[in-house]
Design a protein that fits this description.
The chain has 5 helices and no strands. It is mainly alpha-helical.
């Protein structure tokens, strides 16, 4: 019985790990994550531009925020290309 109990515990541990992995995958592709990336990037860059006295920091923060976001969000596309080339 000890061996069966051990196997059951291992299976449960694997199931729990799989749940966590699935949640992490869902988060990576979620709309919420994408919006947060845009918002935080914009706020951080805008704050930095204000600190260094750039004219119209919040307008000027739009371009780098969008650029960073696009580069981040297009990574899965380029990853797929890279993976297909490695096969």
């Amino acid at each position: 019985m000890d061996k069966i109990d051990q196997l059951e515990k291992e299976i449960e541990a694997i199931k729990e790990r799989n749940k966590k992995v699935e949640i992490d995958k869902a988060w990576e592709g979620s709309f919420t994550r994408k919006v947060l990336i845009v918002a935080f990037t914009y706020i951080i860059i805008g704050t930095y531009l204000m600190a260094i006295n750039v004219d119209r920091p919040w307008i000027n923060a739009i371009v780098p925020a969008i650029g960073f976001t696009l580069s981040t969000l297009t990574m899965p596309f380029f990853k797929n290309i890279w993976v297909s080339l490695k096969k």
